[in-house]
Amino acid sequence: MQIQVLKSKIHRVKVTGADLNYIGSITIDETLLEASNIIEGEKVSIVNINNGERFDTYAIKGKRNSGEITLNGPAARKVQRDDIIIIISYATIDFEEAKTFQPWIIFPNENDNSLT
């Protein structure tokens, strides 16, 4: 049997932009992607702390160490600049493996989205 479990989480980052006219996705600083083990194109769930919105999109790589967190396309209507969000991805794994699986969870600085 396989189940879905939390794979990666970027906990409480500040939205730096919202680009309604971009094709879609969320642009995430490459440093944060690597630290959280999220890859470009991976499906992610977004939880907006400020307004309670929850939605899915996919990750694209932003400039390394830029702190960028930009919601693109229709998702731009669900956030405002400076909102605090949580970015989550899940994995489907074997039930027994899930019992010992350890997700990648990072806690960036909410002021500038840095890891330091």
UniProtKB/TrEMBL annotation:
One of its GO terms (cellular component) is cytosol. One of its GO terms (biological process) is alanine biosynthetic process. Its cofactor is pyruvate. The keyword Cytoplasm applies. InterPro entries: Asp_de-COase-like_dom_sf, Asp_decarbox. It is found in: Cytoplasm. Binds 1 pyruvoyl group covalently per subunit. Is synthesized initially as an inactive proenzyme, which is activated by self-cleavage at a specific serine bond to produce a beta-subunit with a hydroxyl group at its C-terminus and an alpha-subunit with a pyruvoyl group at its N-terminus. Substrate binds at T57, G73, P74, A75. Keywords: Autocatalytic cleavage, Cytoplasm, Decarboxylase, Lyase, Pantothenate biosynthesis, Pyruvate, Schiff base, Zymogen. Its main location: cytoplasm. The modification Pyruvic acid (Ser) is found at S25. Pathway: Cofactor biosynthesis; (R)-pantothenate biosynthesis; beta-alanine from L-aspartate: step 1/1. Its EC number is 4.1.1.11. CDD domains: Asp_decarbox. The active site is at S25 (schiff-base intermediate with substrate), Y58 (proton donor). GO terms for molecular function: aspartate 1-decarboxylase activity. Belongs to the PanD family. Catalyzes the pyruvoyl-dependent decarboxylation of aspartate to produce beta-alanine. This is Aspartate 1-decarboxylase. It comes from Flavobacterium flevense. The lineage of its organism: Bacteria, Pseudomonadati, Bacteroidota, Flavobacteriia, Flavobacteriales.
